[in-house]
Amino acid sequence: MAVGFIVSGLLVGFIVGMTGVGGGSLMTPILLFFGINPATAVGTDLLYAAITKSGGVWVHHRNRNIDWKITGWLALGSVPAALVTVMFLHRSQADQAVINGLIKHMLGIALLLTAVAILAKPLIQRVTFSGEMTLKADSNTRRIITVIVGLVLGVIVTLSSIGAGALGTIALFLLYPLIPTSRLVGTEIAHAVPLTLVAGLGHAGLGNLDWGILGFLLIGSLPGIYLGSQLSGRLPDRLLRPLLALMLALVGSKLVF
């Protein structure tokens, strides 16, 4: 079983390094496939994401690709939402079957939304940066919307471990169309670390974390991310993006329906 987790970490890390798609949309379904309890799968993946994305924050900060003000507004909504969601899970622990069902359903919805976001991202980029669509809102309204986006992401990510990357980045593209793509991506990665850390530690406090599995996943993912990064841009995105979206949509549909 340990070898399976290491290989899974290697595979997910490779795909993340090559495509930039968040590991949660891949890792949590894999853990469910191994028969891991849904709550444990989500909790383990959340802390896995917090650790792996921390390195990305360092790189993006060094390259000045993070807008810390936007990160702060997102976290203002997402971190309290994550804490409230963990408290809800704690109070509902009496019926674990209901909680597992809720998590699986939210996981399926998050996978479907992520699949749509992956397919829609190129179109949104073209429309946004061509000037055909702009957000007509003053600075205060934009901040409020950013906090609300963070709040929604906090609930979705805490329940499913999915959404901080793909869904968050799409939202930032719409809210801040004039900011360079690399800076938006770096900003969302910086926001994902405190969100997944708080949500992951919350799940750990509920007993929804397997430290052994987490260690095996990290052993595989670190070289996987490096190898994937070396191939990034060498394989046709028009082929990888639809295949990845299709895979996530199939898994999400199975969990929801």
UniProtKB/TrEMBL annotation:
Q: What is its main location?
A: membrane
Mention any one GO cellular component term assigned to this protein in its UniProt record: plasma membrane
| Keyword vocabulary terms for this entry | Cell membrane, Membrane, Transmembrane, Transmembrane helix
What are the TM regions of this chain, as residue ranges? 6-23, 30-50, 70-90, 102-124, 144-176, 211-227
Subcellular compartments:
Cell membrane; Membrane
Q: How does it sit in the membrane?
A: Multi-pass membrane protein
Q: Identify one Pfam family in the record.
A: TauE
Which family does the entry's similarity section mention? Belongs to the 4-toluene sulfonate uptake permease (TSUP) (TC 2.A.102) family.
Q: What is this protein called?
A: Probable membrane transporter protein
